[in-house]
Amino acid sequence: MKIKNAQNKLLNILKKMTMEEKIGQLYQAPFFSDVVTGHAFDASSTIERIKKGMVGSVLSVHKEETLYDLQKTAVESSRLGIPLLFAFDVIHGYRTSFPINLALSNTWDVDLIERVSKMVAFETSHKGIHLTFSPMVDLVRDPRWGRVMESNGEDPYLSSVLAKAYIDGYQQGDLSKEGSVAACVKHFIGYGLSEAGREYNTVDLSKRLLYNMYLPPFKTAINAGVSMVMTAFNTVFDRPATANKFLLKDILRDQLSFNGVIISDYTSSEEIMNHKVAEDMADVAFQCFDAGLDMEMVSESYMHHLKTWIEKGLLSVQALDQAVLRVLKLKDNLGLFDNPYGYFYKDSDQYILTEQALNLSKESAEKSMVLLKNHDQILPLKKSDKIVLCGPMIDQQDLIGEWSALAEKKDVISIVDAFKNDGDFEILNNQATDIRRADKVILALGEAGDQAGEGNSKADINLPEDQVTYVRKIYDLNPNIILVIFAGRPLIITEVDALAQAVLYAYQPGLQAGPAIKSLLSGDSIPSGKLTMTIPYHQGQIPIYYNHYQTGRPFDPKRPNYRYNSRYRDCKNDPLYPFGFGLSYASFIYKNLSISKQTLKKYDKLLVSVDCTNDSNHRADEIIQLYIEAMSFSVARPVNELKAFKKMTFEPYETKTINFVLTVEDFRAYNITMDYTAEKRQYRVKVGPNSKDLMMETIRVIDQS
Ligand code: GLC
Question: What mean pLDDT, rounded, does the chain reach?
Fold first, then answer.
């Protein structure tokens, strides 16, 4: 009954709306003057447009007074008083900054990601914002692309699982609930495949790769109830995603039954002219609306041209009404019609930078960093260790990364601050004499927070030469180097990795960077993060990722110098560190992999179990991973496909039997006829600590699903 009443309420509003007011709901306005892709706009027009009912939403405004005034203008000065939707990119923290999303994905921790996004929603929604442009679920394979920092890495299954966790944390199942915000999944689709990792570059992907690799996280996000989908800047099958009827209508609406709002990316609608598929803004309006785009972010093609197309009968007013109703429904779900000022709170600073938020930021930073090397167990530090802290980023505070909303670098605790504040280690000066007599040297380097993110593709992701030279000099003084690497992406660290005794990849860890690093290096917490994006051995290997095809002439390690197989003359094929890799202070031993059947029928359940032992005196977490491999299929499939994982806590010397349950569905893929099926073939089931060190069993599917 409640839903019926809500629908009637919105239909009654719709009936009163003029054509201009309807089109106004499909416009997301800026409120700052900016020039992007040659588009300059004067924000002062936004207020006048709001009064005329020509604006449905405003993005990237975060000053509460301004938001309140804009809402007041819409509610009290426009004819119908329809409230505005306020959207902002709050993707890894509003004021309390958490690790960048690529780092968070290294936790493989659904519960943690849900708690983090719930905390992000709590801060955001208590500061006047209704919707966040998150989660970003672009699959990434090329660390030259700066936006890998906001992704969940290179695997579709993991990205899908984490996408749901973000959405559950943001939306909490009820958008009218205090502390929740609406979520927008992005970028639909294929943006992470930008050729050569160059920002906004051409994307070329097959339909099968789209369905097998790129679509799953969006499908999961839609099934999790995401409120909005944002289109990508790039073309897919040679049509811009923003004006791509196959993507927006056939896939999103028809195949995935998405009934939320589809929004363009920032001026991506008018950029279809740059893609050279539209002549002018009138053409832009027709093509985007006809393809199924609901809301235009910043561009004004709908504002100036949609009415004419509809009056000519070339676009339908019914389609316009449906798009408007989707926007009104989102606003109603958020409770904005009942109380348009419901996201403004007195003394709202009480809701940000709370102790709980800062503790969660530290916890998530500890769990997102990846211990790549720990030679001779140099870590954890001993209380008696005399330590030197050095390196270009040892006192760095620019560790919050891009898309950091209102987080401030001044609030970041550096490594130096953390070690010096606590005083529980003897810290020497970093003069040559001290370095020589130190037991251990903690050396921090990498790229600062503003080096990755949008518009930050790099042709060269080697560590800067001066940093490598610095490590060599320190090594000559004292080889007991513990490297801490900050970055928004995997960098080429091969040379410094070889010089160091230990390597902790810290990414951009947020406000609690220093305390988290100190906690890990001292053993107060135990490293548990595992790579969700491959770290290349050499830049020339890129793109390099674990779920690659075998090729017709796979590299044969027994014939490493044989010329005629898939290899380089001048470099090995293997990455420096593979997907799924990460060390602990504990050592885990995997034994007794077993599967309950040798053949699998349509409705069977396959029990896969393995014994895992923590062969140490540390209480520690381990992420046990399960992959499959199709030994043959009607199309090429990856050498490994992640299908399940479990993050478990082990007491010292504890052995657990880890059980996974698979069905024939876990072996499916889009095949030669684009049927999503598990063909009657042989498959391997593999379990282990990462995508390389795997135990395996073989099974045959005998009943095609
Ligand atoms: C940007 C990004 C998108 C973001 C939007 C609004 O260009 O591509 O991820 O949400 O504009 O800031």
Answer: 96
Mean pLDDT of 435-444: 97
Kindly list the protein residues whose Cβ atom lies closer than 6 A to any atom of ligand 1: 59-60, 89, 133, 186, 265-266, 454
Say how many Å lie between the CA of residue 473 and the centre of ligand 1.
42
pLDDT surpassing 70 at residue 480: yes
In this model, does residue 654 exceed pLDDT 60? yes
Best of 147, 149, 230, 264 to mutate for ligand 1, by most ligand atoms within 8 A of CB? 230
Element (H, E) at 568: none
- For residues 375-409, one letter each, b for 16 or more C-beta atoms within 10 angstroms of the residue's C-beta and e for the rest, the string is eeebbbbeeebebbbbbbbbebbbbbbbbbbbbeb
Query: Residues 168-193: pLDDT tens digits?
Result: 999 999 999 999 999 999 999 999 99
CA angle 367, 193, 146 (to 5 degrees): 50
Q: Which residue bears the tokens 């790039």?
A: 234
Mutate to test the pocket of ligand 1, among 92, 184, 265 (most ligand atoms within 8 A of CB): 265
Supply the residue whose CA is at minimum distance from atom 11 of ligand 1.
266
pLDDT for residue 696: 96
Choosing from 31, 59, 181, 266 the residue with most ligand 1 atoms within 8 A of its CB, the one to mutate for a pocket test is: 266
> How many C-beta atoms lie closer than 10 Å to residue 657's C-beta?
11
| 283 classed as catalytic | no
CA-nearest residue, atom 8 of ligand 1: 265
* Ligand 1: nearest atom to the Cα of 186: 9
Distance CA 471, CA 479 (A): 10
C-alpha pair distances (Å), 562 with each of 252, 556, 620: 47, 8, 43
pLDDT tens column, 77-125: 999 999 999 999 999 999 999 999 999 999 999 999 999 999 999 999 9
Q: 430 pLDDT exceeds 90? A: no
Is the pLDDT assigned to residue 607 strictly greater than 60? yes
pTM of the model: 0.97
Closest-CA residue to 337 (of 616, 641, 686, 11): 11
Q: Give 410 Cα–ligand 1 centroid separation in angstroms.
A: 25
Q: Given 89, 265, 434, 497, which residue is catalytic? A: 265
Could you tell me the distance, in angstroms and rounded to a whole number, from the CA of residue 325 to the centre of ligand 1? 24
What sign has the CA pseudo-torsion 145, 147, 148, 151? negative
Give the separation between CA 368 and CA 400, rounded to whole angstroms. Answer: 14
Tell me the three-class secondary structure of 258-309, residue by residue. CCCEEECCCCCCHHHCCCCCCCCHHHHHHHHHHHCCCEEECCCHHHHHHHHH
For residue 229, the CA-to-ligand 1 centroid distance in Å is: 12
**Atom from ligand 1 closest to the CA of residue 36:** 7
